[in-house]
Each structure stands twice: as structure tokens, then as C-alpha cells.
Design brief:
With 468 residues, the protein is an alpha+beta fold. The chain is built from 16 helices and 21 strands. The protein folds into two domains: 181 residues, Glutamine Phosphoribosylpyrophosphate, subunit 1, domain 1, CATH 3.60.20; 268 residues, HUPs (Rossmann fold, 3-Layer(aba) Sandwich). A hairpin with a 4-residue loop joins strand 11 and strand 12. 47% of the residues are buried. The mean pLDDT is 93.
Length: 468
């Protein structure tokens, strides 16, 4: 996790720089670098996780590039690269806008190409790292990792025109904000033909391994351990890969018996801390989150009932904000403790609910935002992409986790959103997808006799067991 900001030189010179960068520096606490080139100021705040400590922006041949996140396959392009972002400009010069299809990782990228007078904005497949951009004829482009940086600091901004770059998107714009080109980062193959979970398991183990091993600065990693499927699978993979890790648990609706059994199973690898969340602590964290998180409204679909047809007619739009979610408060408390204890990489379980079951099982939705209800049809083209695949809770809860992590300089990584993991799941046969709740995760835990409650959706309701 890093952060960047691009704005006109004359705007930057007239602003309070400390206030301008207050929240951006929390995302990138290790180094801030500012360069002026032509009419724009380019600012980058670095969170140093892997490779040689390398300041940004990158600059070569009249091209400027900024990176937030991690590119895991950068050594594939040149073994001499000492930092992942060093590959960006050379790949762009070689492949043009299609360079983004070559990248494997979790990233947001900005390129100013002064040779062709265009700007390239690039998200990863699920937009795990945000880009917000704004344009008007007087202020020109303002591009930021945080929406609030634009809203709080720039006068005369029409906030309704601040755009968050869509998931799986790379666009190029001219300097007058005219769209030149738009393409997807990745095209999923929707053929359902694999009859075992083997390739999915290999992809998941590799996804977690690369998110741990792409870390040569001894930055420690942690998870939030519940009694559910997602964190349980991650903890089991870490154990099977012989990676020691830290976990934190706030008991909510979880089974303490299951968690204790997991801790006994993982005892040589997992250093867990149980956290008691009191009403006072909850209120303190809620107040901190409401004042500091990059809070912005997201609309998501709620269906009229759990049995509505999948024709997308019977729904209404609901407004949601990060600070309104009880899980946000619990995560903030955990991340605050993890930060104080020196943990900088968080392995998130996000994406499993959205992709492997869409919040349902056996043709029944657990919540009213489920479109598929855990049932995958014979032809995935009929439903792909379902609402929560890119939007809905996918977008909502990424913004929640990124929003909290950004307050503590913690790098959030998403193994269930790894493109190879998602692709392997989509290629599973219809039968393997539908035969159990979160089929491949259930299979994996059963294979190793790992403790879990079958067919139970728990959710992080940290406000349900507050102590006095």
C-alpha cells in the first residue's frame, strides 16, 4: 500500500501541504517524494514492503508513472529490476495500453505520457487499490488514492464528478479528459470443465505463498481468525506451507470451541490474541473511524425476497458507507493493535463470499444481496458477472478494508481475489460448485480434518458480544 496525488503546480503551491498529505502519508508512511514536471505536481507516499527501497514517481523518456500496491511478477520482465514498479514504463513503451494485461498483482497505476499527450489510469481486476480522478477545465486533472484528499483540500470541486476507476479497467484520456481507449485487464474463461479441486487448491496455495514470500524486508503478516470458512482456509494453508503467522480474534457470533480447536491444530505456527471488545472501546473506535476513514457512499442491490428470479428486476438500491458497517469498527481495533505490534501485511479473506457462493448455498440466499443464492447455472454466461463479482459487496468491503488499512500503513493482500484462484474456481464443473457451501474451501478443510462448522455463514458482527 502506498498513495499518490497528481494536481496542477499552481494548485499545489497554494495549499497547506501538511494538511493536503495528512491522510495520504498514513497510507505511505516510509517516504514522501514530490516532483514537478511541466504543469503538474506528482506526489508519492511509499509503504516499503518488498524489493529495494525505491522512490517514486518513475520517470523515463518523457513518461511519468506512479504505482500503489504490488506487482508480483516483475522479475519475469527483467531479473535486474530491484523494485516492482521499475517494470511499468518499459512494459508500457513495449505494449502500449495493453501492458496492464501482463501484470500479476494488486495495484493501481497512473501514467502521464507526454510524448503522446495522454494519461493512463489502471486498476487491477477487482480494484483492490483505489484511484479517484476529477477533471474540469480550470482545475484540470486531480488524481488521488483518497477521495477525501480532493474533497477536503480543493475548492470549487463538484464532488459528484469525482470518479472512482472501475474494477478490471485500464483507460487512456487526453489532456482534455476525452476518452481515447478502454480495455479490461483480464478476460475470464467461463467454461466449467474441471472435475477435481486439485488445480484450485494449487492456485490458492500459490496465491497465499506469493503474498507472504514477496516480502524480503521481514515485514510480518497477520489474519483475523474467526470460526468461519475464509480465515480458516487461509490459516490452514499457512500451516501447510510452514509459514508462521499472527492472528487476532474478536469473538462475535463465532464458536469459541471451533477457534480453540483451530489454535490447537495450528499451535506451532499461529500466535493468536483474543481481544475483548468493550462498549467503551467500540464507541472509541467508531468515533475514530467516522472522523478519519475515507468515507464515501456506495450503492448496492438488495433483492425483494430470497427467492426472486435471477432476471435482475426485483431489487432496490441501498446506500452504504464504510463508517456505518459494524465490521469496520472491529477491523479498526484489530489493525490498530497489529500496527502497534509491528505487523504490516494483512491477508484478507475477502472475495470468498462474493465469488465462491455469492452469499448463498443450495439455492438459498443468506442475505438479500445474493443474486445466485449459491447456485451456479449450467452456462455461466447467463449470470456472469453477477452483481457482487465486481460491484455490490465486492466493492463495498474492499473499500472498508482498504479504508482502515490506509489509516495504519498496513498492506492488505487478497489471496481469494488472485486471478488464478478465481479462474480455477470458474472452471470447476457445475457439480463441484454446487455440491456444498463454498465447495473448494469445504473440501480443503475436510481433507486435513481442520475444524469448521459445515454450511454455517457467520459474518463479522463484532457488536454482538460487547463487554460492559
Amino acid at each position: 500500500m502506498c498513495s499518490f496525488l497528481v494536481l496542477l503546480n499552481k494548485l499545489y503551491l497554494n495549499l497547506n501541504h501538511n494538511y493536503l498529505l495528512k491522510y495520504l502519508k498514513l497510507r505511505g508512511p516510509d517516504e514522501t517524494n514530490v516532483i514537478n514536471f511541466k504543469e503538474y505536481t506528482f506526489i508519492h507516499n511509499l509503504l516499503h514492503i518488498c524489493g529495494k527501497k525505491t522512490l517514486q514517481p518513475f520517470f523515463s523518456n518523457n513518461i511519468i508513472a506512479l504505482l500503489n500496491g504490488e506487482i508480483y511478477n516483475y522479475k519475469d520482465f527483467d531479473s535486474k529490476y530491484e523494485s516492482d514498479g521499475e517494470c511499468i514504463i518499459e512494459l508500457y513503451e513495449k505494449y502500449g495500453q495493453q501492458f496492464s494485461k501482463k501484470l500479476y498483482g494488486e495495484f493501481a497505476i497512473v501514467i502521464f505520457d507526454y510524448n503522446k499527450n495522454k494519461i493512463i489510469l489502471c486498476s487491477d481486476i477487482f480494484s483492490t487499490k483505489p484511484i479517484f480522478y476529477y477533471y474540469d477545465p480550470k482545475l484540470k486533472f486531480i488524481i488521488s488514492s483518497l477521495r477525501r484528499t480532493i474533497v477536503d483540500n480543493i475548492k470549487n470541486v463538484n464532488v459528484d464528478n469525482i470518479i472512482k476507476l472501475e474494477a478490471n479497467t485500464c483507460i487512456s484520456l487526453d489532456f482534455e479528459n476525452n476518452l481515447i481507449e478502454k480495455n479490461n485487464i483480464y478476460e475470464f474463461n467461463l467454461k466449467q470443465y474441471k472435475t477435481t479441486y486439485d488445480d484450485f487448491i494449487r492456485a490458492l496455495e500459490n496465491a497465499i505463498n506469493i503474498r507472504i514470500c514477496n516480502n524480503n524486508n521481514n515485514n510480518t503478516h497477520f489474519i483475523c481468525l474467526s470460526s468461519g470458512y475464509d480465515s480458516g482456509t487461509i490459516s490452514l494453508v499457512l500451516k501447510n506451507l510452514n509459514h508462521k503467522f499472527k492472528s487476532y480474534t474478536i469473538l462475535a457470533k463465532d464458536s469459541k470451541k471451533i477457534i480453540d480447536e483451530r489454535l490447537n491444530f495450528d499451535k506451532k505456527y499461529n500466535n493468536n490474541t483474543y481481544i475483548e471488545l468493550t462498549k467503551k472501546l467500540y464507541d472509541e473506535n467508531k468515533n475514530y473511524v467516522s472522523k478519519n476513514i475515507d468515507d464515501y457512499e456506495i450503492k448496492y442491490k438488495v433483492y425483494e425476497d430470497f427467492t426472486c428470479e435471477r432476471n435482475e428486476k426485483n431489487f432496490k438500491l441501498i446506500n452504504w458507507n464504510q463508517s456505518s458497517d459494524a465490521g469496520t469498527i472491529g477491523i479498526n481495533h484489530i489493525f490498530n493493535i497489529a500496527n502497534k505490534e509491528g505487523y504490516r501485511i494483512y491477508l484478507s479473506g475477502h472475495g470468498a463470499d462474493e465469488i465462491f457462493c455469492d452469499y448463498g448455498a443450495y439455492n438459498k440466499g443468506f442475505v438479500r444481496n445474493s443474486q445466485l443464492k449459491g447456485y451456479f447455472p449450467e452456462n455461466l454466461n447467463d449470470v456472469f458477472p453477477w452483481n457482487n463479482f465486481y460491484d455490490g459487496t465486492m466493492k463495498m468491503f474492499i473499500s472498508k478494508e482498504e479504508g482502515i488499512a490506509s489509516l495504519y500503513g498496513i498492506e492488505t493482500r487478497y489471496p481469494f481475489l488472485d486471478k488464478h484462484v478465481v479462474q480455477e474456481f470458474l472452471n470447476l464443473s457445475q457439480e463441484l460448485k454446487n455440491n456444498s457451501y463454498k465447495g473448494p474451501l469445504s473440501y480443503y478443510m475436510k481433507k486435513y480434518n481442520y475444524p469448521f462448522e459445515e454450511d454455517i455463514k457467520i459474518g463479522f458482527k463484532c457488536h454482538k458480544r460487547l463487554k460492559d
